[in-house]
Amino acid sequence: MVEFERKSTMNSVNIIGKVQSLELKYTAGGKAMLKGTITMPPMKKDGPVQFIEWTAWESTAENIDKYFQKGKKIGLTGNLIQEVWNDRETGSKRSKLALVVRSFTFCESKSEDSSQPDVSLDDCPF
To answer: Are 41 and 49 in contact (CB under 8 A)?
Structure first.
Protein backbone atom coordinates (compact mmCIF):
# COMPACT_ATOMS: atom_id res chain seq x y z
CA MET A 1 0.00 0.00 0.00
CA VAL A 2 1.32 3.43 -0.94
CA GLU A 3 0.52 6.40 1.27
CA PHE A 4 0.70 9.73 -0.53
CA GLU A 5 1.65 13.12 0.84
CA ARG A 6 0.33 16.15 -1.04
CA LYS A 7 3.53 18.18 -1.21
CA SER A 8 4.22 18.44 -4.94
CA THR A 9 2.42 21.03 -7.03
CA MET A 10 4.46 20.40 -10.18
CA ASN A 11 3.30 16.80 -10.54
CA SER A 12 -0.33 17.17 -11.64
CA VAL A 13 -2.16 14.98 -14.15
CA ASN A 14 -5.64 15.29 -15.68
CA ILE A 15 -7.06 12.36 -17.64
CA ILE A 16 -10.46 11.37 -19.00
CA GLY A 17 -11.39 7.80 -19.77
CA LYS A 18 -13.87 5.03 -19.12
CA VAL A 19 -13.93 3.07 -15.88
CA GLN A 20 -12.60 -0.43 -16.48
CA SER A 21 -12.48 -1.75 -12.90
CA LEU A 22 -13.11 -0.63 -9.32
CA GLU A 23 -12.18 -2.36 -6.05
CA LEU A 24 -13.05 -0.67 -2.74
CA LYS A 25 -11.25 -1.83 0.41
CA TYR A 26 -10.72 -0.45 3.89
CA THR A 27 -7.42 -0.33 5.75
CA ALA A 28 -7.10 -1.71 9.29
CA GLY A 29 -7.55 1.88 10.48
CA GLY A 30 -10.85 2.21 8.57
CA LYS A 31 -9.53 4.37 5.71
CA ALA A 32 -11.30 3.83 2.36
CA MET A 33 -8.99 2.89 -0.53
CA LEU A 34 -10.30 2.45 -4.07
CA LYS A 35 -8.08 0.88 -6.72
CA GLY A 36 -9.20 1.21 -10.29
CA THR A 37 -8.30 1.20 -13.95
CA ILE A 38 -9.55 3.48 -16.69
CA THR A 39 -9.17 3.03 -20.42
CA MET A 40 -8.37 5.77 -22.88
CA PRO A 41 -8.83 5.45 -26.64
CA PRO A 42 -5.74 5.09 -28.82
CA MET A 43 -4.02 8.26 -30.01
CA LYS A 44 -3.71 6.78 -33.50
CA LYS A 45 -6.51 5.09 -35.42
CA ASP A 46 -4.87 1.65 -35.19
CA GLY A 47 -3.02 2.23 -31.89
CA PRO A 48 -3.50 0.33 -28.64
CA VAL A 49 -6.03 1.27 -25.97
CA GLN A 50 -4.29 2.77 -22.93
CA PHE A 51 -4.95 1.33 -19.45
CA ILE A 52 -4.18 3.60 -16.49
CA GLU A 53 -4.15 2.23 -12.93
CA TRP A 54 -5.07 4.60 -10.11
CA THR A 55 -5.82 4.76 -6.40
CA ALA A 56 -8.17 7.08 -4.52
CA TRP A 57 -8.48 7.52 -0.75
CA GLU A 58 -11.12 8.35 1.85
CA SER A 59 -14.21 10.29 0.69
CA THR A 60 -12.91 10.54 -2.88
CA ALA A 61 -12.68 6.73 -2.98
CA GLU A 62 -16.15 6.24 -1.54
CA ASN A 63 -17.77 8.78 -3.88
CA ILE A 64 -16.19 7.35 -7.02
CA ASP A 65 -17.30 3.87 -5.93
CA LYS A 66 -20.84 5.17 -5.28
CA TYR A 67 -21.37 7.05 -8.55
CA PHE A 68 -19.36 5.14 -11.16
CA GLN A 69 -19.26 1.65 -12.60
CA LYS A 70 -17.57 -0.07 -15.52
CA GLY A 71 -18.02 1.78 -18.80
CA LYS A 72 -18.81 5.21 -17.31
CA LYS A 73 -16.72 8.17 -18.43
CA ILE A 74 -14.75 9.87 -15.64
CA GLY A 75 -12.23 12.68 -15.34
CA LEU A 76 -9.43 12.16 -12.82
CA THR A 77 -6.97 14.69 -11.41
CA GLY A 78 -4.03 13.57 -9.33
CA ASN A 79 -0.33 12.94 -9.06
CA LEU A 80 1.85 10.31 -10.70
CA ILE A 81 3.87 8.01 -8.47
CA GLN A 82 6.35 5.30 -9.34
CA GLU A 83 5.58 2.01 -7.60
CA VAL A 84 8.63 -0.25 -7.19
CA TRP A 85 8.69 -3.92 -6.12
CA ASN A 86 10.66 -7.14 -6.54
CA ASP A 87 9.14 -9.77 -8.83
CA ARG A 88 8.22 -12.84 -6.74
CA GLU A 89 9.22 -15.31 -9.46
CA THR A 90 12.42 -13.78 -10.82
CA GLY A 91 13.47 -11.53 -7.94
CA SER A 92 14.14 -8.73 -10.43
CA LYS A 93 13.18 -5.15 -9.63
CA ARG A 94 9.96 -3.97 -11.34
CA SER A 95 8.23 -0.61 -11.47
CA LYS A 96 5.22 1.13 -12.96
CA LEU A 97 3.65 4.57 -12.98
CA ALA A 98 0.29 4.94 -11.26
CA LEU A 99 -2.05 7.83 -10.52
CA VAL A 100 -3.03 8.87 -6.99
CA VAL A 101 -6.39 10.61 -7.46
CA ARG A 102 -7.09 13.89 -5.65
CA SER A 103 -10.40 14.72 -7.35
CA PHE A 104 -12.78 13.49 -10.03
CA THR A 105 -15.25 14.92 -12.53
CA PHE A 106 -18.47 13.56 -13.99
CA CYS A 107 -18.02 13.51 -17.78
CA GLU A 108 -21.48 12.29 -18.80
CA SER A 109 -24.82 13.96 -18.29
CA LYS A 110 -27.71 11.97 -16.87
CA SER A 111 -29.25 11.88 -20.37
CA GLU A 112 -26.11 10.12 -21.63
CA ASP A 113 -26.28 7.64 -18.75
CA SER A 114 -27.82 4.53 -20.31
CA SER A 115 -28.13 2.80 -16.92
CA GLN A 116 -30.80 5.26 -15.77
CA PRO A 117 -34.31 3.80 -16.19
CA ASP A 118 -36.50 5.40 -18.82
CA VAL A 119 -39.46 7.27 -17.34
CA SER A 120 -42.73 7.18 -19.20
CA LEU A 121 -45.01 10.21 -19.09
CA ASP A 122 -47.82 7.76 -18.27
CA ASP A 123 -46.09 7.12 -14.92
CA CYS A 124 -46.20 10.80 -13.88
CA PRO A 125 -48.76 11.51 -11.13
CA PHE A 126 -49.76 14.92 -12.56
So the answer is: yes
Is the pLDDT confidence value at 121 over 60?
Answer: no
Cα 58 to Cα 75: distance, rounded to the nearest angstrom: 18
pTM, entire model = 0.74
Cα atoms in the 13 Å half-sphere on the side-chain side of 57? 15
Angle CA 93–99–12, to nearest 5: 120
Provide φ and ψ at 101, rounded to 5°.
-80, 130
Among residues 72, 8, 69, which one has the least CA distance to residue 34?
A: 69
Question: CATH fold of 13-108, please?
Answer: OB fold (Dihydrolipoamide Acetyltransferase, E2P) (2.40.50)
